[in-house]
Amino acid sequence: MVIEEQYVHRIPDEWTFEDGGWVETFSIGYFGIWGNGGFIDATDTAIVSGIGPVGISALMVAKTANAKVIAIDPVKTR
Asked: Which of 19, 42, 54, 58 is deepest in the core (most CB within 10 A)?
């Protein structure tokens, strides 16, 4: 892959490539909660629709803010 240097982020030496692979996924979930001036705290209820990797990341961010979280997914094993 060829990419401009400004878009490259160095991961810590002790991280595996699998750990580094979660950075973008988590950033999408994080932005879904906090992006565009969003704010969530313990007085809020967050509904996360879809509990794949991005949904799990959003769920973690909402729980870290002490919000009540309702997670829904059509796949029962999730």
From this structure: 58
